[in-house]
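Protein modeling request. Please complete all fields; requests missing the sequence field cannot be processed.
Requester role: graduate student
Desired output: 3D structure, token encoding
Chains: 1
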Amino acid sequence: MSVGGWQSILVLGGIRSGKSDYAESLVTGDPVVRYVATGAADPADAEWLARIEEHRARRPADWQTDEVTGDPGRLIETISSARADETLLVDDLGGWVAALLDPARQPADDRATIAELAAAVRSCPARLVLVSPEVGLALVPSTPVGRAFADALGLTNQLLAEVSDAVVLVVAGQPVWLKSTGPAATATVISQDPGEPTGPESGEPTGPELAAANGSGAAAQITAGMTLPMPAERTRTAGVARLGRLDLPGAGFGALENVIGFAAGTQDSASPRPWDQVQVVLIHGDHEGGVAAGDSPQDSARRADQARAGHGALARLAATAGAVVDVVSAPVAAPIEHRPALTADEVDSALATGWEVAQRAGRAGVAAIVIAACGAGGAAAAAAVVAATTGAEPAALLGRVPAVGGKVDDAAWMSRCAAVRDALHRTRRGTRGAREVLAEYAGGDIAVATGVLLGATANRIPVLLDGPVGVAAALVSRDLAGQARHWCLLPDHGRQPTVRHAADVLGLTPLLDLRLDLGEGATALAALPLLRSALALADTLGEHPTFAEPEPAGPGPAATDPVR
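Delivered output (564 residues):
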């Protein structure tokens, strides 16, 4: 599971630098953590045994510990066989290099083994944290053994830094980010990698710090009028036309023809495949002020924690669909009735976060992305974005506020209406370009979702929208790159007026009319099996015999044969 934006990170540091503590803090709270220990214990070395016991004592009780000492190939096998739903913390690579240089293994091709480790890290589906000593700042060792160790560890660190999504150097307990981008970008229009996605609790740079680090990265290049790819209209038309030739006993696919045409265009194939690898991007970002009336930040945090732990409606539906949930933290938005929700730097950071999440999905071969959100005030902030973008009346966009026990909170609805109205009045003389809309009304969750949509479009990944945050991001994305909306699919409207209105403006017709409202993202997952079934049937079903080509006739009697 990729949480917080990166999937693999190399944590470097000197002796007693705090690198292990910092690495452990990155994975605290992950649902399944395997601590991979590389250092062999020497029963005769009491001080070394004390260090090992110190590490053991501070690990959570639910962490699994794997000992991979002695044979360097065991670490490579452990990383290669890791599952996508777990986190591996390898501490540390100094022990692995010591085993690599063991005289009992020599002669051996150590460089080839290091390259094998790098290849395993590059393809590892799990979340991976690698801890390694940084020996490059010390003097050249005076002994041949010491020089061999420094050379091998230096090469290991270089290769792993190249394939890891992020690299951080810990000095005196303080993290210094050396690399906050992934491997080479796969997008066709942005040549420079975006900044690393971050969260407020991750210890990674956020806000202005990240925006400054990005410089000319994704956020700087996400501008109005940017050119992104379009789905193939020719294959979309051919995919729909092909349905009329299939050997079906009934009248056809009905409204599901639209999903088959959509998949045909986005896959550039008249016989599109079902989406096998689906990633759910759950964006957790709260809003302050009146837009959050009736919502609880504690409850939204609980929902995000549930998803991380594999519980709750979203995680259960994702597990049923075989989808991976990526929980991404967004900055808290200020009260829009009083001031902008985000600063310009925070907008840049959030866009870069979303873009890199989509880039990472593209590198992982994800076939479709579901945008989900859980945050206090997200629905009302989305209504503010839609109202500012389309000129609709806020009261008509704001749905009723549900309360515990199936009740409706009318007072909260009025507070939301007032907050959105005041925000629009506050900004009535300002410009309403896409970035201004994100800064004034949207908040971090919608800005991150916008970055995800644009990055997905750049990587030709279709996006399933489900809820106010997603459709608000689609509207903003349309104003930055008109191609983005053509990569969006809306399974259901969920009886939400914001979604209905934004879908009309975007030209998105809901595939179904189930009127489910299971939480943003969950409805799309509930509909996913049906959409996959339609794609699978259309892909594998043969043509009706009427359209089969006649078999070539065999040779007739020879002209010289006598008539019998």
